[in-house]
Input
Amino acid sequence: MFADGLIPLIERGVVNGSQKKIDVGKVTTAFVMGTDKLYKMIDDNPMFNFRSSEYVNDPRVICQNPKMIAINSAVGVDLSGQICADSLGTKQLSGVGGQVDFTEGASWSEGGRAIIALPSTAAGGKISRITTILKPGSSVTTLRFYGATIITEFGVADLWGLNTRQRAQALIKIAHPKFREQLAKDAAEIYGK
Output
């Protein structure tokens, strides 16, 4: 999806498609949603390459561009690195969109990286979004073996190549400080010290 947030990056020349190996010099997208300014920018503009989601979201296509960075969000991440982006327990919040496709494609891309960015808490700071286990009934949107890079306002946890104990330790470091002690106790019980 292409939205207004990319307009300033295109206007400054930051996003120009010059480093791509396919669709060079193009902004390739399946759909757009935004303001009149966005629609005026894309109208009859040869820089924009509209393709089907079967093409845009195909990990085999995505990975052809080196240094592909995929940034997605999540509802929660458990200490093993499982990512839930579409449900809260059994309550469906949204669809998965292209998270799995882009996480996989970026992981396969030479020098690529899959990033999951989320606030460390929810419900006004009462609930940690980095949890020991996902809330029962929650969907696992993205599997832990993709080794995504998880980012909160407290830092970065690069999970690639880490065992489960190391993943838990890295995720605890970027959890909100008021939840770290309990997460560390839970991790020690599950994964050992």
